[in-house]
Amino acid sequence: MFKMLKGLVLMVALLFVIAACGSENTVESTPAEQEDTTKGESVDETGIGDPEVTDITLRLNWRFKGEFAPFFIAQEMGIFEEYGLNVEVLEGNGSTNTMQAVAQGQDDFGVTSTVEPSQGIVEGMPITMIASYMNRSPILIASHPESPVETPKDLEGKSIAMSIASTFTNIYPFFLESNGVDESLIDSVQVESSARNGLFLNKEVDAVAIFSTNEYPIFEEELGVELTPLYLADFGYDLAGLTLIGNDSFLEANPNTTKRFLAAIDEAFEYTMANKEETTSIMKELFPDAVDEDIVLLQLELLEEIAVFEDVPYGWMAEENMKDTLDILEVSDLISERFELERYYTNEFLEW
């Protein structure tokens, strides 16, 4: 009897040990597996942490034109969504208005040139440039083939139309001076943009100051000729363009959201440049009244020429380029004060 009781006690004890071991193994393995899975969901394939906020706005500085296509591609092709973001891309009404909206927290990100934020930062606006997608200036002087302007000196004895208070108009006297041009020998006509275009298209002036990625292909199509382009960048005036800005408080509070936002745009730029015809068709569907597919395709080809980024993400801001921009703005009296470079821009959100 004693032996039977002893045997039963040993069997019960053995069962407790087996149960305890099984329970211990379960406790150790399951949380570890869950932790690995959670980490994968948190960081995902981007290698970027969870976004702090997911609903954000991007304010453009004008109505649709070809250079804005990558932002809409990121939206339409679901690239923003892949990065866990819901981005509303909004048209704008000038870089200054866009900058003010971002500075006041009305929009999260905005598109400007490098000029306006450089001025705004001096005025105390809480903004920072976080990417620039044209590392070569799109500003050019276009001229009729029968009276070509191939160098700044060729402007002497000719007429040129420019928009009132534009970046070009502000730097124009200094551009001429630095290139040894006598301004008194040029008929410089400052008018509103629509009047500027009409003067050139009606051949009432010899040349016009425009953007390569916007008006240039439009003018060539309307006139049916190849115009003569003079890029200011080839003559010492290279101002970066298509620049993204963010509000300082937003950037500080939402670094992962900002990184995901820029990573999505980087992917969208790659897609756009590799699929320009498809991109053009998508833009036509989005903006049927505003898009001429042939023009947008040419605008994208011209954008590709000045959006050159090797071994770095699209939007990477080169220190030398930013320094040159500030040099131009300073000598042109477009900024009253100059800070250290890191106050103006950062590449930290492009480092994934």
Automatic annotation (TrEMBL):
Which Pfam families does UniProt cross-reference here?
NMT1
SsuA/THI5-like domain mapped to chain residues: 67-278
Give the highest taxon in the source lineage.
Bacteria
Tell me what this protein is called: NMT1/THI5 like domain protein
Q: Where is this region: Disordered?
A: 26-50
Protein keywords:
Signal
Protein's UniProt keywords contain Transit peptide: no
Signal sequence region: 1-22
Which InterPro entries did the record assign?
NMT1/THI5, SsuA/THI5
Q: Which SUPFAM superfamilies match?
A: Periplasmic binding protein-like II
* Gene Ontology biological process terms in this record: thiamine biosynthetic process
